[in-house]
Amino acid sequence: MSEVLTNFSPFKMDKEQHPWMGWDRYHTAKEMLEQAPDNFDVKDCFAILKKVSQELCPTVVSMVFDVTEMKVYWCENRQWNNIQESAF
């Protein structure tokens, strides 16, 4: 199961508008997750995060938690080729 975490309330729909809101990014991520194959993995998660990362208010940290591996993967400042990991 995959979920989209936002920095705004999607329940307000598009009634609140500001440059960093991310309503379009939320829909992009949601659509990509709905179309994801059964073998969706950490690499695919980062592809979504890269697609929806912010430019106006730059994304500082992007994180993926792999529950099967009990690992957290992350990159800082949109450095998509420098993924770090930590096991629990």
Q: Estimate percent helicity.
A: 25-40%
Rg, alpha carbons: 14 Å
How do the SSEs run, as a string of H and E?
A: HHEEE
Structural class: alpha+beta
Give the N-to-C terminal Cα separation: 20 Å
Quaternary structure annotation? single chain
pLDDT < 50 runs, ≥5 residues:
none
Largest sheet: 3 strands, antiparallel
How would you describe this structure in keywords?
single chain, alpha+beta, three-stranded antiparallel β-sheet, 2 helices, 26% helix, 18% strand
In short:
The chain is of the alpha+beta class. 26% of the residues lie in helices and 18% in strands.
Structural write-up:
The protein is an alpha+beta fold and 88 residues long. The chain is 26% helix and 18% strand. It contains two helices and three strands; from the N terminus they run ααβββ. It has helices spanning 23-34, 42-52; strands spanning 61-66, 71-76, 84-87. The chain has a three-stranded antiparallel beta sheet, with helices on one face. Helix 1 (23-34) runs antiparallel to helix 2. The model has no long low-confidence stretch (mean pLDDT 83).
What does the secondary structure layout of this molecule look like, with pairings?
Elements: H1 23-34, H2 42-52, E1 61-66, E2 71-76, E3 84-87
Antiparallel strand pairs: 1-2, 2-3
Helix pairs in contact: 1-2
